[in-house]
Amino acid sequence: MADFTFPLPDVGEGLTEAEIVSWHVKPGDPIAVNQVVCEIETAKSLVELPSPFSGVVKELLVAEGDTVQVGSPIISVTGEGADEPAAPDTGVTEAVSDTTASVSSEGDSGKVANLVGYGAGDDHATSRRRRYARATPAEAPAMAPSAPVSAPVAQAMPIIAKPPIRKLAKDLGVDLASVLPTGVAGEILREDVVRQAEQATVFKNIETPAWPENREDRIPVKGVRKAIANAMVKSMFSAPHVSVFVDVDATRTMDFVKRLKASPDFAGIKVSPLLVMVKAMIWAVQRNPTVNSTWTDEEILVHHYVNLGVAAATPRGLIVPNVKEAHTLSLRELAMALEKLTVTARDGKTTPEEMSGGTITITNLGSFGVDTGTPILNPGEVTIVALGTIKPKPWIVEGEVRSRMVTTVAASFDHRVVDGDVASRFVADVASVMEEPALLLD
């Protein structure tokens, strides 16, 4: 029997530290090869670490909430086979591909055997931090939820909804007065209620808690929040931003989405206006390739492929995973890829590899009921597009004022690469597809 020490591995992209979020084992527990022992949070994602060997947990060397350097020992295990510790299966638990853990075993000879990857560093200091340090030691009182608050939306017409729709709204806790109707006669449809319910879940103040007794919270700037802050500062103050806006009649897009939802080919697949917007961007990129570039100081790299990033708001903060080779996907394949990306991000399983190599990004402000904004470029890219909320507005059609489903498309560009005429043509191309999505038919 010998004692094995498992150092924190580099889970990809040269990361130097990670926080121990939770332990899945405790001293005395038997563990097997590839069994998940803990979950760590890096600046990129949450990653589950599998054990590279079997045995019995001797000691947890790092507490939950500690931030440790790569190479620092985090757990010791008593087991057999010290001379040939098993390499971890990094494909398990959606960990980063091509990651190799380093494991050392120390016997009576004092020699340390290392697996491929890295050796133990000289400085294994840990910095102990609480995840959220309160300004006062008093515990905050239990949150007392109040009645749900729905975003008020003015409606000029009475509420028109069939009994099943009214029951659905009641079951989902949706106030029909806050729902934007998309029916031909101004009636509220099932998808309108479902969309309102889904949008409501992204807001933090649907249930308003009581004020806590402590006056301030202290949240350490680390992990994803630190990475976001550094990336935004670098992007904003290194790339000269310029933004372009256009209002779009998206009525045909909404009709197109309804037809896709009813199509057997899209059964069980989430379809939304974002799908049309993404496809429109890919089409517009092909017509205006310089918007899909990277600035390197020495040269401009124009990418003739699209790894399309989608800004995702998650409990851990804003992340931008991307759909690889999005330009090669059919509309159905793209819908499936977007759904997988969203679910993975929401579950905190997005890997660093899935957030690297992006060429252009979209952010969906409309999911928060926002009309438009001036998005900041994802570092390394020269274009980001924002889709605003789609809602009924008066619009002139053939000389008459009619109610149409209108949205605003906004885009920011790196002016070192993208000139005003190219930026304008690109946004106009995106808008033309939103106005007539039949251009997207494969």
Describe this structure in words.
- This protein has helices spanning 163-172, 190-200, 223-238, 251-262, 273-287, 331-346, 420-435, and strands at residues 2-7, 17-23, 30-31, 36-41, 46-50, 55-60, 66-69, 73-79, 104-106, 112-114, 126-128, 133-134, 217-218, 241-249, 293-295, 300-302, 308-310, 312-314, 317-319, 322-323, 360-364, 383-387, 391-397, 400-414.
- By secondary structure, the protein is α+β, with helices and mostly antiparallel strands.
- Strands 14, 17, 20, 21, 22, 23 and 24 form a seven-stranded mixed sheet that branches. Strands 3-6-8-1-9-10 form a six-stranded antiparallel sheet, with no helix packed on it.
- The N and C termini lie far apart (63 Å).
- The relative contact order is 0.12.
How confident overall, as mean pLDDT?
A: 79
Number of H- or I-type helical stretches:
7
Give the CA-CA distance, first to last residue.
63 Å
Give the class-level CATH name of the largest domain. Alpha Beta
Largest sheet: 7 strands, mixed
Specify the CATH homologous superfamily of the largest domain. Chloramphenicol acetyltransferase-like domain
Which range does the strand content fall in?
Answer: 25-35%
Tell me the overall shape.
globular
Number of strands: 24
Ranges where pLDDT stays below 50 over 5 or more residues in a row are: 81-156
Could you say which structural class the secondary elements and strand pairing correspond to?
alpha+beta
Radius of gyration: 26 Å
Number of domains: 3
The CATH topology of the largest domain turns out to be Chloramphenicol Acetyltransferase
